[in-house]
Write a structure and sequence with these properties.
alpha+beta; Jelly Rolls; 7-stranded antiparallel β-sheet; 4-stranded antiparallel β-sheet; 2 helices; 16% helix; 30% strand
Length: 188
């Protein structure tokens, strides 16, 4: 059994073909985005944590979304085989991808993916895995950091899978040049 939490953060290189990444980014410019907010279970309200520096997000549709959703399922299955835990070898489902857009100076505050709003009665369970993909690499800054010191070296087309629990705090540093495009899904 693995005892180093970093062993459960898996980066899969060049999973999404470059043409799918490019088409997704192009079409993302035609969907509506809004400022990302974090839900507070104590107050029942949502608010940004980084003030006006918080990224923008969208559940909008692009033509590549079915292909990205399919990859979420595939990567979750690969991840479960890679971590090799016989007591945890399947899951119930996964969310459609949510798109993230980080313009210059935008970031995502330190948090863990214990998403309450997705489980409002229609879905039963809690998120157990986060599946994050990066769609471009022509930006500067925007590093994805887990545990406040572990930089995941994302490139265009890469996917990172990690547990969606309090033991895996993560953030995205401010983008200093260009725009960072990514997507996220949660497996339960």
């Amino acid at each position: 059994m693995k005892t180093d939490l970093k062993d459960y953060v898996k980066l899969y290189k060049s999973v999404v073909p470059a043409d799918v990444c490019d088409k997704t980014v192009k079409e993302m410019n035609n969907i509506e985005f809004r400022e990302h907010e974090f839900y507070n279970a104590n107050t029942g309200k949502s608010a940004p944590r980084s003030g006006s520096r918080e990224l923008e997000m969208s559940w909008g549709n692009v033509s590549t979304k079915p292909a990205l959703n399919s990859l979420i399922n595939e990567m979750a299955q690969i991840y479960l085989k890679d971590i090799s835990m016989p007591w945890f070898n399947r899951y119930q489902g996964w969310s459609h991808v949510r798109f993230n857009k980080y313009a210059e100076t935008k970031q995502m505050a330190l948090h863990c993916d214990h998403i309450h709003s997705m489980f409002d009665g229609e879905r039963k369970g809690i998120p157990i895995l986060s599946v994050l993909g990066v769609l471009n690499d022509d930006y500067e800054g925007g590093e994805f950091i887990v545990f406040d010191d572990y930089v995941v070296p994302f490139k265009k087309g890469d996917i990172c899978v990690f547990p969606s629990v309090f033991l895996f705090p993560h953030k995205v540093e401010p983008v200093t040049k260009g725009t960072r495009y990514s997507y996220i899904s949660w497996v339960w």
